[in-house]
Design goal:
- The protein has six helices and 14 strands.
- A seven-stranded mixed sheet has the order 1-2-3-4-5-6-7, covered by helices on one side. A five-stranded mixed sheet has the order 8-9-10-11-14, with no helix packed on it. Strands 12-13 form a two-stranded antiparallel sheet.
- The protein is an alpha/beta fold.
- The protein has one domain: Metallo-beta-lactamase, Chain A (4-Layer Sandwich).
- It is globular.
- A hairpin with a 5-residue loop joins β8 and β9.
Length: 228
């Protein structure tokens, strides 16, 4: 679906990937492993080429949002962006809660460990929050930890558009915090939602669920009031 002009949401296996189609292409998240073919086909249906992707921004380092990266890199020379707190060469410091990290060190789950997160060597640009990239007249990186230590949201003041990854979810038409069992710090996640509630945006895109395309900031503020 086209969310606003030149910004598309591609839903694959319950996960949203955002494509910004300007002079160059920007991809927000890459979906599960196996998603690359569908993303590339969508880009080609727009009359564009995957080689036009100049930037791939990962909202966080989980397999459902970053799993398709390795396959996509076969099609594009794009630079990959990820928050530094979600990057570690230490396999005991995976971007998952401790219980899942422990599970991934036990056979047979340990066999899949290299597939569930992006390695440091695959990241070109490490961010901290506060950086601004060129898409949409200035796309601001906002550090919104809680789901993972390095989760980020992306805000376009010019388009009044906010993309939150899994800082918030939308299930059955309701906004909610990310699930506790796959989040590193839920109290930190609440603080992140309070931070983004202070922004001025009309459209809100999630990592899971349909976007809110009208009065989105007011609805996030209402959620904060309910949580207080």
């Amino acid at each position: 679906m086209e969310i606003i002009p030149h910004v598309y949401q591609i839903a694959l296996r319950g996960v949203n990937i955002i494509l910004i189609a300007e002079e160059e292409l920007t991809l927000i998240d890459t979906g599960f492993r196996g998603s690359a073919r569908h993303i590339v086909n969508f880009i080609r249906r727009l009359g564009r080429s995957p080689e036009e992707i100049s930037l791939i921004i990962l909202t966080h380092n989980h397999l459902d949002h970053a799993g398709g990266l390795a396959e996509l890199k076969r099609f594009t020379p794009a630079k990959v962006v990820l928050h530094k707190a979600d990057i570690s060469a230490d396999e005991n410091q995976l971007p998952y809660p401790k219980v899942i990290t422990k599970l991934l060190h036990i056979p047979p789950f340990s066999l899949s460990r290299p597939l569930v997160y992006v390695q440091p060597s695959e990241v070109d640009i490490q961010v901290e929050g506060g950086e601004v990239f060129s898409p949409l007249g200035g796309l601001q990186v906002i550090h919104t930890p809680g789901h993972t230590r390095g989760s980020i949201s992306l805000f376009s003041p010019k388009k009044r558009l906010l993309m939150v990854g899994d800082a918030l979810n939308k299930r059955h038409k309701e906004m909610r915090l990310p699930p506790k069992m796959v989040s590193t710090d839920l109290s930190q996640a609440v603080d992140s939602v309070r931070r983004i509630a202070q922004l001025d945006f009309d459209t809100l895109c999630f990592g899971h669920g349909r976007p809110i395309t009208k009065d989105a900031s007011a609805k996030v503020q209402e959620l904060i009031r309910k949580m207080s």
